[in-house]
From TrEMBL:
Species this protein is from: Humibacillus xanthopallidus
Domain ABC transporter: 2-232
Keywords: ATP-binding, Cell membrane, Membrane, Nucleotide-binding, Sulfate transport, Translocase, Transport
InterPro entries hit by this protein: AAA+_ATPase, ABC_SmlMolc_Importer, ABC_transporter-like_ATP-bd, ABC_transporter-like_CS, Mo/tungstate-bd_C_term_dom, P-loop_NTPase, Sulph_transpt1, TOBE-like
GO molecular function, one term: ABC-type sulfate transporter activity
NCBIfam families, alphabetized: 3a0106s01
GO cellular component, one term: ATP-binding cassette (ABC) transporter complex
Lineage, opening ranks: Bacteria, Bacillati, Actinomycetota, Actinomycetes, Micrococcales
Name the UniProt record assigns to this protein: ABC-type quaternary amine transporter
Length: 336
């Protein structure tokens, strides 16, 4: 378990970490998610020991490492732009941490072979970093970080510089790798889809503070506040209330909309709106709407529902958030 308690960090007069408390369970893959400048990297670097804190403590498995340098914290680190040793082969790059620790040659050879297989780079041991793709280089970086059996693996936007398809492949690969090696992993990302896809816990940061920590489903379905709700998925403002676009049901008939089972607290009720656009998104359809009040919002419905409704631009429709709606929980007692 990594425990960060009351972490504070200033850069000049700017407060980058504002009394951050977080527990990261052993064996978890925890994502630090937040917008640019929210303090994710600063928190990760503080756990790594690459950034000193103005106040607060970091413990790893019960050991207070606040005053320890990075090399004594038992961590492996991978950055967005991994600094490989260009003049060394893949094999020697991965072996680096073991070589400087003067491990026996046979042990190093076995370990490197095992790791290259785990990261899917067996057969690449004699290549140089320049002869690898960006995704392969990041996998080599992970193998190198794992070589010294770290207690904790810290990843700062490791796939940030790669194109969308490679990113998606690599994050699924990371999830499988984590299931195999179980090392406590902390991943910094600003991409909510990436966090939802790979992490078993997500901490949402904003302005140097943690807004909420929880598993992806809890954060998506029971966000503690508007910020978390808006950051983890699309939102629509319906009668002044934030709801998920796919939790909005559309009816041609006002009475049918009123009859919908909508046990949502502070339900905005039935909103009468004009269809502005119908946008096919594949399996679903996004319906852009303008309420009589002038408020614009979007509903997301299946193609089948859209076909049944036979929606046309300019028509009037009745919208309601149903009982399945994710409505922000304003009760601070329930906020995690
Ligand atoms: N060495 C530094 N000196 C001054 N300000 C810094 C320094 N490092 C970070 N900051 C500032 O602290 C804030 C938090 O930075 P941090 O890198 O932790 O954010 P982040 O959430 O990781 O953002 P990003 O996704 O853009 O990397 C930012 O406003 C940044 O400009």
């Amino acid at each position: 378990m990594i425990t960060v308690t009351a972490a504070r960090k200033h850069y000049g007069s700017f407060l980058a970490l504002d009394d951050v408390d977080i527990d990261i369970p052993s064996g978890s893959l925890t994502a630090l998610l937040g917008p640019s400048g929210s303090g994710k990297s600063t928190l990760l670097r503080a756990i790594a020991g690459l950034e000193g804190l103005d106040g607060g403590t970091v413990t790893i498995d019960g050991r207070d490492v606040t005053a320890e340098p990075p090399q004594r914290r038992g961590i492996g680190f991978v950055f967005q732009h991994y600094a490989a040793f260009k003049h060394m082969t893949v094999r020697d790059n991965v072996a680096f941490g073991l070589t400087i620790r003067k491990r026996p040659k046979a042990e190093i050879a076995k370990k490197v072979d095992d790791l290259l297989e785990i990261v899917g780079l067996d057969g690449f041991q004699h290549r140089y970093p320049a002869q690898l793709s960006g995704g392969q280089r990041q996998r080599m970086a992970l193998a190198r970080a794992l070589a010294v059996d770290p207690q904790v693996l810290l990843l700062d936007e490791p796939f940030g510089a790669l194109d969308a398809k490679v990113r998606t492949d690599l994050r699924q690969w990371l999830r499988r790798l984590h299931d195999e090696v179980h090392v406590t992993t902390v991943l910094v990302t600003h991409d909510q889809e990436e966090a939802l896809d790979v992490a078993d816990r997500i901490a949402v940061l904003n302005h140097g503070r943690i807004e909420q920590v929880g598993d992806p489903v809890t954060l998506y379905e029971r966000p503690a506040n508007d910020f978390v709700m808006g950051f983890l998925g699309s939102v629509a403002s319906l009668g002044g209330q934030l709801v998920r676009p796919h939790d909005i049901v559309l009816e041609r008939d006002h009475a049918a909309a009123l009859a919908l089972d909508a046990k949502v607290a502070d339900s905005p009720g039935v909103i009468t709106a004009t269809v502005e656009r119908v946008v096919p998104l594949g399996f679903e359809v996004r319906v852009d709407l303008r309420a009589d009040s002038g408020e614009r919002f979007a509903a997301q419905i299946t193609r089948r529902d859209a076909a049944e409704l036979g929606l046309r631009e300019g028509e009037t429709i009745h919208a309601r958030a149903t009982s399945r709606s994710t409505v922000v929980d304003h009760d601070p007692a329930l906020a995690i």
